[in-house]
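User: Here's a chain of 229 residues. Predict its fold as tokens.
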Amino acid sequence: MSKRVTFQHSRRPSMSRVSGAVVAAGLGASMVFGAGAAFASGTTGTADTAALAGAATADSVAQQATAQSKAAAAAKKASADKEAAAKKKAASWRTPVSHYVLSATYGTGGDRWASKHSGQDFAVPIGTKVEAAHAGTVVKAGPNGGGDGPAYGNAIVIKHANGKYSQYAHLSKIQVKIGDHVKTGEKIALSGNTGNSSGPHLHFEIRTTANYGSAINPVSYLNSVHVHV
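Assistant: Prediction complete.
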């Protein structure tokens, strides 16, 4: 009778299982390493993004500041140009004679005038060139004060666009006529000593109408339009 031989198989792991485990372990390590690398990469990207954003914001602020500075400079220049234009326009007024000595002033009392002095006297030699203090239209010109009375002698009255009138009296010669349009500084007459005058001079008035009795202080008015007498 033959004996049955029983073979017992050892429980050693097969090579395929060992290889699988190694591969799995390797994959796990790779995944862990990859995750770490990804995390590190993500962290670096966030920092770079923040830095770039900060730089962009700083650049934007700088550009805005530059734009505001330019706008302020432009506004300042525009304001200065406007002021200069206004002064230039105002300064188109001038004194009626270039070289003079001030004599009787506005508001002076005395026997020479029926009431107080209505203008400013510029002492100048007879024959001195008299010029229009501002552009306008001649509304009076002639002897007898151009219609205002013999005390003024030969006289001229000019109407200006702003509603004011200028008057020039005691003239030796009148060189314009009623209706003439004159420019600032244009020659209109020669000074003299006609009418009620104690010596050669130009009597100058600023009026609110064309007629006697509406005079205002001519020096104060000229100062208000940037002409210093």
